């Protein structure tokens, strides 16, 4: 059975090309495309707006090759490019791509003897003029001639639908300029910049002059011999280059097709609190401790939030900083279960374990340890309250997915206040008597933050709907901050002090989804909650605030920032957790003890020491 070239491409997924619009015709030029392991197809799948093929004329046929010595049997322009493009054009309803908004330019780089090559080319496309004649058909594939081209005054000798690749140093007449499709030049003619960082200001001015001149002529500009890297693409784009030259069209497409998830701009920063620092780091017992966990929040996430808030965060005002190593007992990378269990119990454990050691034995957590000394505790999450991080502070199960069992463990916990979503695991638990059992233990069950804020004392179980903990970008509001403030108002009445774990759960969600706007907006929400904790610490004088993470998520890399605009551009290396150290910020009595580099489970013992409990 014969399978057409178009069928092969559509079988590889291009039928959904219309869904991909971020990479458009003004972004990608597949340079020396014939050197790809699959000529045309790789660039076509990547929806390049421009594809280049070098040609030689041999024995009446046009062969695709960079050097004459590379010419091989069967590698003709007709076979590799013209015929497949004609077939694809017809399959796409007389458009280059399935998405009718996408255009295509085929650049024929003539290596020698244009006088013979051009008539041969015109002959080879003569049977399908509608595919390549943009004068008669605006949806046609644009043919642009580069390399060994006619002199500008000879352009008029060739059909008007044939365009030419211009050069910035040629002074074209207005008539000749109409035949120029774009202006191209070797980047090395203007700079030794290797794609890392930025060109020097002097070189940048040279480049800008070339770009601006092309734009003044109404033409797009392309540089060849550019490095293939996100930084290079960003710098060229920022300078105004129209075509991004690439030998890796698939990578360029991947970069541009997700820009809505990899770029974020926050035009108006929120105000940041300046702490008093009166009790910061003093050698004094902490009566209260607020442990704030930004789930998935690594150094890059914090810096992204810093840049997006125009160079300032509440977290960045904290002066005592350490680093925690996050590996699990059974793996280099931790999940939230093992990471939170290390923080909550002081024991490294296996991934997926909740409140249990690697020896499969239950470990006493901070909540229960502190209760025995009179300290009352709260656990708050802006997500599922049976999820791994909050669960590690009140439950003991061998697998984080055991939601019903985790919820049931609350019956044995000494936690005073529990706030988060996932009503199902409590109200529809396998133990139908769970809620009545919790009420018998003294818990007031609240179904919303409004109900919770009406309570002024006693044990509180706050189970909100899942929609209440939706993303902050979708209207959640300052739910986390208000939950913390009201928990403080209740627990601060305890004469022996309090402990509150507050989780910014959805920074992690953004990391797993490789979604920078979610990461930053969730981090900003978390940072505003940190502000409320620091403000209370200043007013109270006996409260230690600790800000850290269970792990980093996404392998976030910042590619470009403009803090004056609140703009951040980034990339992710994974959709999972990484092994990178996470920061530990501390503010208040005993904060200096959190400096240095140490294992994450040591935070448990540092918290115990901060209370001066034996």
From TrEMBL:
One of its GO terms (molecular function) is phosphoric diester hydrolase activity. Mg(2+) binds at residues 295, 387, 389, 503. The active site is at 336 (phosphoserine intermediate). Its cofactor is Zn(2+); Mg(2+). Residues 1-21 form the signal peptide. Keywords: Magnesium, Metal-binding, Phosphoprotein, Signal, Zinc. It comes from the Bacteria. Pfam families: Alk_phosphatase. Transmembrane segments: none annotated. Binds 2 Zn(2+) ions. One of its GO terms (biological process) is lipid metabolic process. Belongs to the alkaline phosphatase family. This is Alkaline phosphatase. It comes from Pedobacter antarcticus 4BY. The lineage of its organism: Bacteria, Pseudomonadati, Bacteroidota, Sphingobacteriia, Sphingobacteriales.
């Amino acid at each position: 059975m014969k399978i057409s070239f178009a069928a092969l491409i559509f079988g590889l997924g291009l039928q959904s090309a219309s869904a991909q619009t971020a990479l458009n015709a003004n972004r990608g030029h597949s340079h020396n495309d014939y050197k790809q392991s699959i000529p045309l197809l790789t660039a076509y799948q990547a929806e390049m707006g421009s594809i280049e093929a070098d040609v030689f004329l041999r024995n009446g046929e046009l062969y695709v090759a960079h050097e004459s010595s590379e010419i091989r049997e069967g590698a003709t322009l007709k076979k590799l490019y013209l015929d497949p493009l004609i077939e694809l054009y017809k399959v796409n309803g007389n458009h280059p791509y399935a998405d009718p908004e996408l255009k295509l330019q085929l650049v024929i780089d003539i290596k020698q003897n244009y006088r013979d090559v051009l008539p041969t080319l015109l002959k080879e496309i003569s049977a399908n003029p509608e595919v390549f004649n943009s004068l008669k058909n605006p949806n046609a594939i644009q043919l642009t001639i580069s390399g060994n081209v006619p002199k500008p005054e000879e352009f008029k000798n060739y059909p008007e639908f044939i365009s030419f690749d211009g050069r910035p140093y040629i002074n074209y007449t207005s008539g000749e300029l109409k035949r120029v499709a774009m202006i191209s030049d070797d980047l090395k003619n203007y700079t030794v910049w290797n794609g890392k960082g930025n060109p020097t200001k002097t070189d940048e001015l040279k480049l800008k002059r070339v770009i601006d001149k092309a734009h003044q002529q109404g033409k797009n500009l392309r540089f060849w011999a550019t490095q293939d890297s996100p930084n290079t693409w960003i710098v060229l784009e920022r300078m105004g280059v129209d075509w991004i030259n690439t030998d890796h069209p698939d990578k360029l497409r991947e970069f541009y097709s997700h820009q809505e998830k990899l770029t974020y701009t926050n035009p108006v920063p929120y105000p940041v609190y300046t702490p008093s620092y009166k009790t910061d780091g003093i050698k004094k017992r902490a009566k209260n401790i607020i442990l704030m966990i930004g789930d998935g929040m690594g150094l890059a996430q914090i810096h992204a939030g810093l840049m997006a808030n125009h160079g300032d965060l509440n977290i960045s005002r904290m002066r005592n900083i350490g680093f925690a190593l996050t590996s699990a007992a059974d793996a280099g990378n931790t999940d939230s279960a093992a990471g939170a269990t290390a923080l909550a119990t002081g024991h490294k454990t296996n991934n997926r374990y909740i409140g249990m050691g690697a020896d499969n034995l239950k470990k006493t957590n901070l909540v229960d340890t502190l209760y025995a000394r009179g300290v009352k505790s709260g656990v708050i999450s802006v997500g599922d309250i049976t999820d791994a991080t909050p669960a590690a502070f009140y439950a003991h199960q061998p697998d984080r997915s055991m939601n019903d069992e985790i919820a049931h463990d609350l019956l044995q916990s000494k936690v005073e206040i529990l706030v988060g979503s996932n009503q199902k695991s409590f109200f529809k638990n396998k133990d139908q008597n769970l809620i009545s059992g919790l009420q018998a233990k003294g818990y007031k069950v609240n179904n919303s933050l409004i109900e919770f804020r009406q309570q002024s004392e006693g044990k509180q179980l706050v189970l909100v709907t899942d929609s209440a903990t939706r993303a902050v970008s979708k209207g959640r509001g300052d739910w986390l901050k208000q939950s913390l403030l009201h928990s403080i108002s209740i627990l601060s009445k305890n004469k022996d002090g309090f402990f509150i774990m507050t989780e910014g759960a959805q920074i992690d969600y953004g990391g797993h989804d490789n979604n920078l706007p979610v990461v930053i907006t969730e981090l900003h929400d978390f940072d505003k909650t940190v502000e409320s904790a620091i403000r209370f610490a200043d007013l109270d004088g006996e409260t230690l605030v600790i800000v850290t993470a269970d792990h980093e998520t996404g392998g976030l890399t910042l590619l470009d920032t403009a803090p004056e605009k609140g703009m951040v551009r980034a990339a992710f290396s994974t959709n999972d957790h990484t092994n990178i150290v996470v920061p530990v910020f501390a503010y208040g009595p005993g904060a200096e003890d959190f400096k240095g580099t140490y294992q994450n489970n040591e935070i448990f013992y540092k918290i115990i020491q901060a209370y001066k409990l034996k």
